[in-house]
Amino acid sequence: MVQEDFSRDIVTLTEFVIRNQKDFPYAKGDLTRLLGDIAVAAKIVTREVRKAGLVNILGEFGTTNIQGESQKKLDVYANEQFIAAMKHGGVVAGVASEENDNVVVFEDRDCAESNYVVCIDPLDGSSNIDVNVSIGTIFSVYRTITQKGPCTMQDFLQPGTEQVAAGYIIYGSSTMLVYTTGHGVNGFTLDPSIGVFCLSHPDLKTPEKGQIYSVNEGNFNYFSKDIQEYIHYCQGTANDFGKSYSCRYIGSLVADFHRNLIKGGIYMYPSTEADPKGKLRLLYECNPLAFIVEQAGGKASTGFERIMEIKPEKLHQRVPYFVGSIRMVEKAEELLRHSLSK
Ligand code: AHM
Ligand code: MG
Q: What is the predicted pLDDT for the residue at 58?
């Protein structure tokens, strides 16, 4: 008799999350459901991103968000898709989104009694939407603190150390979903032929040091002397490699972060005179990527303190951001501290 070989190499996202439910000490099945809902919304957004240019989804929506940034049609579309996916899933009590002034509280019974809230940047890198450059989604999951009834603001204003899961989706030459629950980082690539996220980057670790620095150097003259000094360090040869680093800056945080995570590097969005808090938002940009980078062996800092230890004061709070390979972030911190002590 011929023995059939039914083995296969593919591990799907769903299979992987179920297999690792033991890593997630809370209600079994809820996180599986939540990640599944996020994955479905990511596929819907991928579909729209892939046909952008062919259909009428590029360009301005004609509104601005609370931060005064004009909203693109895809920003608004992605926001609706992710929020709808989480509302229908029934395991999320509310969502804080870059695109909404206030938190969206789900009041129906299933949601109100659920244990999680999500902070999300539904489509990061908006300025790149219209020009066919990689964009992304960033998300962060917290357990609710509010005991009874609908979630409240305090559920969202928790330090990053309280995150129970975080991840991002990159809509690049392929679509990838990368996430952590605090037990390492795993990456899944969407196989478009079967419409399934498949494990492609198991147990991701970021190099301790790299040769890439990512910063908007157009702001150089507005950076403080110590930041300028660090940039000069990156451009010089007095480092472990004896040659200047490469500057790579896409202007899509997810894409810059993802490249540096894999190759080794540092991404910076420091404060400027005009923006003493920098540009990036703590809750749905900095904290989730900080959780991921730390789980991958890297570091995320304001230059002076660990990002994940900041106690948020408001929803759309901004912080200066240095994230990436541990030795590179430490070097930036060293120069910043040094200048402070002068
Ligand atoms: P967004 O959420 O409105 O897209 O803004 C965040 C983006 C990041 O993706 C990117 O790293 C940064 O803003 C780029 O800003 P700048 O154009 O000032 O360099
Ligand atoms: Mg953003």
A: 59
